[in-house]
Amino acid sequence: MTQPTSAPRPGFGTYLHFGPVHRGNVIAVWIGTSFVSIEEARKNLPAEIPDWNDARVEIAARSAWHAQLSRIQIAGNDPAKAVFYTSLYQAMLQPRTYRDVSGTYPRFHDHGQVEHTATTQYDDFSVWDIFRAQAPLMMILDPKLEASMMQSLITKGEQGGFLPIFPAWNSFTSEMVGDHSSAMMIDAWQKGIRGFDIRRAYPLMRKNASEMPASREEYRDGKGCRGLDSYIKTVTFLLKTRSPMLSTRMNRYRARLSAHMTMQCLPTLLKSWGTRKMRLSSASVEKTGTT
After folding, report:
1. Which CATH topology does 104-288 take?
2. How many other β-carbons are positioned within 10 Å of the β-carbon of residue 269?
3. Looking at the chain, which terminus has fewer C-beta neighbours within 10 angstroms, N or C?
4. Model-level pTM greater than 0.85?
5. Is the pLDDT reported for residue 199 higher than 50?
6. In the chain, where does the domain assigned CATH 1.20.1050.60 lie?
7. Cα separations in angstroms, 104 against 38, 42, 46, 120
8. What does the pLDDT look like over 210-245, one tens digit per residue?
9. Phi-psi map region of 170: left, alpha, beta (phi>0 left; psi -120 to 50 alpha)
10. d(CA 236, CA 244)
């Protein structure tokens, strides 16, 4: 087996070479993975699959999925049940666990640095696609998972400097417009989801709503409020962006949610900040587009 020492794209991979294979031969493969190192993958493997008993692995997987899918019970024999449970299964495939059993995981948007956590770290949030349906569904079916997802987003924001709008491959992306990570977080808080630190989330949400990308590179990463200058000049069209009307609507949506979240969380934030005073100037309100 050859083990690459770096991960340049494209062509990164591992290759397995076998001797002559004949009809009737069985090749059994026992695979452990890690986003940190080969050593961590070796630790993950026995923790997830302790032996070569294929039947035991299959039974465990079936039992785990049965427990998840059984959270919604549908009576009768309508053929549409198969469609429903297939869709429910697909909705539960994400997010992706990014932490090793030892607690190590790669720092967000920092290729090479390793962090350690006692909680599960998640990644690959296609936020534009999930904030309307999949995320609210998880808020009902698995509030603890949803809280962990929100905390993972907060951690990414603190490590990367901005709350990511569509974190994938453990990095920023500029997929779609708007900031639906903030929307998803606000939605969870308003629906009573706790277990994530709203006091740490609020500065990140406010920064995303009030600061523009400082460079073209930050713009491509989807950092900050893209098109904020144009949005302030005219609330009707953002002629400088690729999707003017949609960008305007998304910025207004984010500004309204952020303002509403500020009022809802004010007691919590004041309690956290203690004697520190909040200074809300008309300039800052105008800058964020809130009323």
Report:
1. Glutathione S-transferase Yfyf (Class Pi); Chain A, domain 2 (1.20.1050)
2. 16
3. N
4. no
5. yes
6. 104-288
7. 12, 13, 16, 10
8. 888 889 888 888 888 776 666 555 554 444 444 455
9. left
10. 8
